[in-house]
Amino acid sequence: GAIVKQYYNANIDWWEASVTIARNKIRKIKPDCIVYDLEMPPVIRVFLFAAKEERIPVISMQHGEGFGEQYSNFPRLADYYIAYSPYSFEKIKNLQVQDKDIYLTGMPDTDLIYGYNSKRIKEDIGLRYDIDCDRKIILVALRPANVEAFNEINMVLIDAVAKIFGNDEEFYVLIKPHNIDYVEGIPFQYKKLWYKNFRMIDSDFPFSMLLKISRYLITHSSSCVVEAGL
């Protein structure tokens, strides 16, 4: 109780001021509805609260990040929800949202995967990174390296994969930095290749193409896990 009270006292002034600003903006713009893509940032939650106060319908394009299990009990903040997959649809229903208020749309990025030519992708990957794509490919997707905590858990993940699959001739392990990172900017230790079957993939190489040709995906809790399972 003391911790909650301390947090409340430290943030209540910011919250009240932010809600006032949000309500004034909403009254000035007079939107028919408010659409958001992720409810986790506090500033977005401020606008959602203000929209409720002003009786403006709220539409959620993404409930939580990737609709993972950890978001099953995330508070219901929207009037209508967009679901990218049947899995997402069921997670949103767990919030006691009626079927008529959930719109199953599919995910354009995921839909692209079905149209990719696996043979061409393997030829490109093979030439660019000297990979024998007849081997089984393990894709390791990292978190953004510009966050120190993510950098540390990325190294833990890479080390764990290396201990199991290092120099295993049955597999090629593709280390994929987050797409907001640039290869020249990521930490030096990421670039160091300890094993012959490990490759560092350029951060701007389309992740969906790598999913198309990979047998396995290893990553942290992330929306790409859901994409891989679709």
Task: Characterize the overall form.
Answer: elongated
The amount of beta strand, in percent, is 5-15%
Helical fraction: 40-55%
Number of strands: 8
Average pLDDT rating: 84
Calculate Rg over CA atoms: 22 Å
**Total number of helices:** 9
The largest sheet is: 4 strands, parallel
Task: Report the uncertain regions.
Answer: none
Sketch the topology as an H/E string, one letter per element.
Answer: HEHEEHEHHEHEHEHEH
Lateral strand order in the biggest sheet: 1-2-3-4
Distance between the termini: 42 Å
Q: Structural class, from helix and strand content?
A: alpha/beta
Task: Describe what this molecule looks like in 3D.
Helix 1 packs across helix 2 and helix 4 (108-115) crosses helix 8. Helix 6 links the parallel strand 5 and strand 6 (171-176). The chain contains 9 helices and 8 strands. The strands form 2 sheets. It has a 4-stranded parallel beta sheet with strand order 1-2-3-4. It is α/β, with parallel strands linked by helices. The model has no long low-confidence stretch (mean pLDDT 84). The longest helix has 28 residues, at 2-29. The radius of gyration is 22 Å and the shape is elongated.
